[in-house]
Specification:
Layout: H1 5-17, H2 25-32, H3 36-48, E1 52-54, E2 61-63, H4 66-78, H5 80-95, E3 98-105, E4 108-115, H6 118-125, E5 141-142, H7 148-155, H8 159-169, H9 182-195, E6 198-201, E7 209-216, E8 222-230, H10 240-269
Antiparallel strand pairs: 1-2, 3-4, 3-8, 4-5, 6-7, 7-8
């Protein structure tokens, strides 16, 4: 367990974030295996700064809005949010699917931006079941080996680096279709690199199929990946070649916009 206050505070925030509805003071102290007095000190400081909020009715602590400001600042600094949004909106109009962009961060896919497609909106308006927020929140960490975004990002890493990420995060099974074989995954990543796109068919979530393509920076390195996703029953999946072309066009558009933004920033700083 963490031994100093900073480490404990960071672990505490992650623990509360992972717990829907929040946690009481005693639960936090017990799960972190720290004295209640130490827990009180850390929790009170985090609450005072807005990183935790206490529900007066239940006494449970949950993540505060100060973390949102930090997250927004981090996403803004990637430079991808603003340059990707036009392409994501265009993708949803062209395909009827939801679209998103992600980067590889600490072995996870970090969802940087997302635009919901009309199919998702219609399901919500009709009060039909749709994906939980944990599957679609911007800033959410997603598994790399079982998502189309993650497969693209892994495929364009040096092989040893990709192996290191797989060893670090493991190959957890999320559905019966999840690939938990490192050898098969490495073979699939090689195919992804050759064909320039990846597909994940109900490998992370049931009733969800996704297709992703790489976003390149000015040096030719893959900086991010862009994807579309929706139900495997959506008619657009019947013409995979056309869908691949649309996603790859969006990826090229984002790559171009990102290079232009970088060039303009360099010119302004010189």
């Amino acid at each position: 367990m963490p031994t100093n206050s900073l480490e404990r505070a960071l672990v505490l925030l992650k623990l509360v974030e992972r717990t829907p509805g929040g946690l009481r003071h005693a639960d936090i102290a017990r799960q972190l295996e720290i004295p209640k007095s130490t827990c009180t000190y850390i929790v009170s400081r985090l609450e005072r700064e807005g990183y935790l909020l206490r529900d007066e009715t239940t006494g449970k602590f949950r993540i505060g809005l100060a973390t949102v400001a930090l997250a927004y600042g981090a996403l803004r600094e990637t430079g991808l949010h603003s340059v990707a949004e036009p392409a994501l909106y265009k993708l949803t109009q062209e395909t009827g699917l939801s679209a998103g962009i992600g980067v590889l961060e600490r072995g996870w896919v970090l969802l940087v931006d997302r635009v919901e497609g009309p199919g998702f909106v219609n399901r919500a308006l009709e009060a039909r079941p749709y994906r939980a927020r944990s599957q679609r929140d911007v800033g959410r960490e997603l598994p790399a080996h079982s998502t189309a975004l993650g497969k693209v990002l892994l495929a364009y890493l040096p092989k040893e680096q990709a192996r290191a990420v797989i060893a670090q995060r493991g190959l957890r099974r999320y559905t019966r279709k999840t690939n938990v074989s490192e050898a098969r995954l490495l073979g699939e990543l090689e195919a992804v690199r050759q064909q320039g796109f990846a597909v994940a068919d109900e490998e992370a979530y049931l009733d969800l199929r996704a297709l992703a393509a790489p976003v390149f920076d000015a040096a030719g390195a893959v900086r991010a990946a862009v994807s579309v996703n929706g139900s495997p029953k959506d008619p657009v999946w019947r013409d995979l070649d056309s869908l691949v072309a649309l996603v790859q066009n969006a990826a090229r558009d984002i790559s171009r916009r990102a290079r232009l933004r970088s060039t303009n920033l360099d010119a302004n700083q010189s």
